[in-house]
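Hi D.,

Good news: the full-assembly prediction came through. Inputs first.
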Amino acid sequence: MEQRSTRWALGAWTTLVILFLWLPLGLIMVYAFNKSNIQSWPIPGFTTHWFRVAWDASEVRTAIWLSVRAALLATGTALVLGSAAAFAIARFRFFGRETVSFLLVLPIALPGIITGMALNSFFVFNHINLSLTTIVIGHSTFCVVLVYNNVLARLRRSSPSLLEASADLGADGWQTFRFVIWPVVSTALVAGGLLAFALSFDEVVVTFFTAGAQNTLPLLILGYIRLGQQLPIVNAIAFVMILLTVIPVALAQRLMRDTGVVARGTAK
Amino acid sequence: MLLLAPPLLAFGFVYLASLVALFISSFWTVNPFTTEIERIWNIDNYRTIWESGAYRSIALRTIGIAAAVTLTDAVLAFPLGYFMARIASGRSRTFLFVAVLLPLWSSYLIRVYIWRLILNEDGVLNWTLGKVGLPHIHIAYTNWAVWIVFSYVWLPFMILPVFGALERVPHSLIEASRDLGAGGFQTFRRVVLPLALPGVIAGSIFTFSLTLGDYVTPLLAGGHPGTQFIGNVVYSSVGISNNVPFAAAFASIPLVVMAVYLLIARRLGAFEAM
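Then the structure:
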């Protein structure tokens, strides 16, 4: 075993790195209550005024609503296509199987800017107007991968003999699905869906190229930060967003506890 | 199930066709007067990038900072991963795991933005330095800031695979090494490190490629021509000057660099550690 001094040093290093990760997040939580609209430290006093302002800003509401719709639609698309792809790859051998599994991972392996630019050129070239639909298509590329990875990992760990046993015991296709497959994959689907939603809701790089003139919440925030405007609103939104991401991720982590899939395949 | 094949294929087709079209368009040029794309095969875009000192230094800055970020994250992550895998246990390990995972999933944009507040002239960093009697530092909106912010946002991507690899080092190998008379350092260098290396390389794929392709952090943490990345040139080529062929040609640099990197990583066994 490691010597006592080594263990102590490793523990100290770990504490420092965890603080490095979390102090900035704690800081933004404090800034959200900044009384002044100048973002210097220390803040002169506390107020909850900016939450009200953020909530009343119609720009912010429109952006949130667009982001929610885009994330829901992209998640829905990802759940259907991602799980279908995972089933196909896990259960069947077919021509081009390796190619398909490689293609599916491409959107997270390639830098987002390339995916964004490629889709943008495709839409412009085919005279497709940039809209909610194009945002959803852009987000689906990487959301599909998340669901696919989660479901595939689950299917690989479940034994195919379960299906054979089910058939031997006289179950039909629907019963096998309902009583054997569904219990195996349902939590993987929920976890994959939550992660897809979180990622879509937060995405900027691809969205910039597929959104046109509309603002999703991250695009709106990006604009505010660049121009140095409305920073108190940005702080208030940041506070809420950090709290909101904690919930789905903690849930997904719980559901996928045994596989560690949450940590995997997240390279947007 | 078969009903789902058409949409899936259509999806793959759109995506793949877009990528191929992009690659082809990098061999075309935009007429500077009409701003129309002229479909005449040439390598002018690549020549411009190669011959222009400005584009070359942007490419070198991008690759250099990506390498520096990767190295920084590896140094920060390794002892932490070691502590998580081999010393912490039970609840404290779960706690650390969640503590690393949550920042990864909280808004990327917000995490970049926070560092503007920290590194500003009148931000937390200079306030702290002033309190302990040190002089202020002026790194806001410089390449130093870009390096710090990237290292911050991608750190969890390095910690998780390093932890995974270290956790898989069999305890019996370490005991065997001890039994054969190796000291603590020797065991670490000859047994633990080689087995954990694929984890570090797996993490480096994330930190390196994410930095190579990014434009938001250089924009927000830097924000002037001296901090531009390849991504920023691509972003403004598409968004402002509407020169997709040139953007496509410049974007091929991170793509080629990543392809080479992935080939090397696969040789070193990083894919099993992901």
